[in-house]
Write a structure and sequence with these properties.
Layout: H1 7-10, E1 17-18, H2 20-26, H3 31-39, E2 56-57, H4 58-67
Antiparallel strand pairs: 1-2
Helix pairs in contact: 2-3
């Protein structure tokens, strides 16, 4: 893939920074699955030192989705 994606232009409805609930809605799953993926290191997440809540950056989530997409044989 070449160039960068203008996320604000192509995905204005997706917040640049999401919480667990917002990401679960975006991926059509539940918050427990998102938290499990974070614990297992499957999906990129951020947490402030000593904090309990995760945040997810839109560009990292979309990059993760692109690099981990399922391709049937």
């Amino acid at each position: 893939m070449t160039g960068t994606i203008d996320y604000d232009r192509w995905y204005p409805e997706v917040p640049a920074v999401m919480d667990t609930h917002q990401l679960a809605d975006l991926l059509n799953t539940n918050e427990q699955i998102i938290r499990a993926w974070v614990r297992e290191g499957i999906i990129p997440a951020h947490r402030k030192p000593g904090g309990r809540k995760f945040t997810f950056l839109r560009h990292e989530v979309f990059d993760w989705l692109i690099s981990n997409r399922y391709e049937p044989e």
